User: What shape does this take?
Amino acid sequence: MRIALTVNGARREVDDVWEGESLLYALRERMGLAGAKNACEQGECGSCTVYLDGLPVCSCLVAAGQAQDREVTTVEGLGGSSEDSGDEAELDPVQQAFVRCGAVQCGFCTPGLVVTTHDLIRRNPEPSDPEIREALAGNLCRCTGYEKILDAVRSAAAEVRS
Amino acid sequence: MTTTETSTRTSGGIGESPLRPDGRLKVTGRFAYSSDLWHEDMVWGVTLRSPHPHARIVAIDTTAALAVPGVDAVLTAADVPGRNATGLEHQDTPALADEVVRYEGEPVALVAADHPETARRAAARIVVTYEELPALTDPRRALDEDAPQVHAQGNLVREMHIRRGDPEPTAPVVVSLEFEVGMQDQAFLGPESGLAIPDGEGGLDLHVATQWLHVDQQQIQGVLGLGPEQVRLHLAGVGGAFGGREDLSMHVHASLLALHTGRPVKMSYSREESFFGHVHRHPAWLRYEFGADHDGRLRYASADILFDGGAYASSTGAVVGNGGTLGLGPYAIPNVRVDARGVYTNNPPCGAMRGFGCVQAAFAHEALMDELADRLGMDRVAIRALNGMREGDRNITGQVIDSAAPVAELIGIVRDLPLPAPRAEVDLRELPGGVSNTTHGEGVVRGVGYAVTYKNVGFSEGFDDYSTARVRLELTGGEPVATVHTAAAEVGQGLITVEQQICRTELGVERVVVHPKDTTVGSGGSTSASRQTYVTGGAVKAACEAVRTTVLARATELLGRTGLHLDGDKVVSATGEVVAGLAEVLADGGVEETVEWRHRPTHPIDPETGQGDAHVQYAFSAHRAVVDVDVELGLVKVVALDTAQDVGKAINPDAVVGQIHGGSAQGMGLALMEEIVVTDGHVRNPSFTDYLIPTILDMPPMQVEVLEYADPHAPYGVRGVGEPPTISSGPAVAAAVRAATGKALRRVPLRPEAITGV
Assistant: This one.
């Protein structure tokens, strides 16, 4: 089938989509947007988190066809991807904070955490630690023990507030 | 040009915490992990796996699978062109099962098709006729005479015996216990995946996530029947490893399909397949006894340790080696008996995971140390400080600990760190059970537990453990730029940052390019055993030194002066004059040196006494855990997990702390929640729904104290960092739960039913 949707602000039409394909698969394998990650593909790890009409979802749990005529924003759409200049200013404050605070090790969980954190700070610009933990509870990380991720979220929130 | 200006040190060298060079790519989603690879002509490969823990393959009919539109190939063992055997220590693992399957999930056949779903549906149409065989699923029965034989040579993978001092020691105070450790999974997030691209001339390029490119290359070329120059490996982005990528997974399968179809083949496991597609941490059964004087000093210790190796050897032999030589913990003990064994069963194969044989043992020796302290009415910290190794002591294999062994200091540091405040008000989010609203504080008891550990760094028992580094220094746009090329795998830990830092410090240049990791340079050895900063770091340092020597020789010739040295990017005379800039010396071309670097040799241990200098370095750590336990429901909330560790020299202090955080989380996971449940040879929970790893709600805040007692034998004094936190954190958590509940709790993970005793 053909699906048409808006991805990171641009209208996309994708052909030959099999009905059983997830939005995650369509993004990664048919649109060349591999930022959303395939760690569990059953909605447990949050690595595939994207915005769907402004709400964060696990794109592995959304059928590609369900995204018809809807707006998707992936980690690539948050910042830093439109050019290769290496200009730090192009990154979203959340992305900057994750790099600055050492919240990235293997980085496989990072795109999902960046999107989830972006959503948290948008809703709550001054989250307490328990609120951060609650918001990020659906994003698994195996490398960091989450301490530096907490640092990054606090730092990004402070940056956005200022 | 001759000036006397003082050169300034290059920033971003060792001891600083420059940001990782791949951070920007990772936060923007542009970093290419092995599962992100794509080729316009590629097809998808999938694996058909055995549903039985032990069975004979009577027949395989691929006709129906081949008839599925879109299918390019269906392969079985009959299609393996070379030797159908792989393995890290023993070549006992078929690339595709031939005649017999020995565990549930063993690869039997492969399919390549134009869509992964097509390939999966075709694989489901392969008809394999099995004749089920009796399965050996209890490792405690493996060496019985009537046990089913997993391999023709018997069920013993390795046994190790350590005997030291009095063979029949006695002591006035004796304590003993039995302990059991469940099967833990590495649970790296990036699935096994990669892309094999045939070169049209019989060879191929394999882009894959792995921990050791060259040992993969050796195994793959054997299966394919090709030479090393025909099998070129390239490290794709690695989404975590933790030991689970030491063995081959899809590597050889994608390669077989690529050569057969002549097309690029991508494979990427689902999470469920990942649980079957890599080895796990060995479950272990441990029986320990300590004898001590009334003052708490250990007089003797004995241990029997059994590791379930599963169906194939993987690195079971080395795990037995570690469990045996290190299994009594970081204590000075005059009289010792240890018997450690690893056996074959028809359970999932087990191999490397962070902590490698020491993790299981630490649960037992730390539980028993608490038992001894309680029996004597001693403080649990004091008894560890009393018996803790000190520099100059001999360990249980008779090896002198010839650098810092600050056991007493480490455990003292964690004892003295501030404790979390008692719970003041009820906040569900901070109670066991969380917002499930299972308690408002009633039935909740706080406990504190301690543990110390030590771990070998690098490969042991005489293994030729080396790394290769190629460093090139040249002018780019008029500026000196270093390029460092090693095959040592970056798996997230930050080795590429460390390689850059060493080049900056040694060569005085700001810009350091990390060449992609591949097999066009010599082996970097394994990214395991906490060894890469030490060994590949040592190789990079040595290659930089060789570059410096060549640069100075060229400067001597160019300037007609002797006694020169390099200070940052300046060539300086014996009297301290700056006589040239690096750029002038490099104007005629770059300088490149390749060095193979080895740490001090280790030695095999005596097969009868277990005595010998088996390890090159030891790393020590201590943890204190504070837990709140709902003793009525068996739910645990870890309130604090604090640690102290000696790292010799922190090359990148922020990354060191990051390793300690992450390692501690994995140890805590094993103590409380992580277990692959295997019954009758079948894995019952191959998903992140049913196999739980710590979330951000489970992890408490951590206080981390880092000591830097330089090891005089190691480059810059470094000591391996990655594994000790995983070893001491779990036993501290278990001890804290025991303290809160008063229960013995001799099995991890601690299940609610064990905590409540129902």
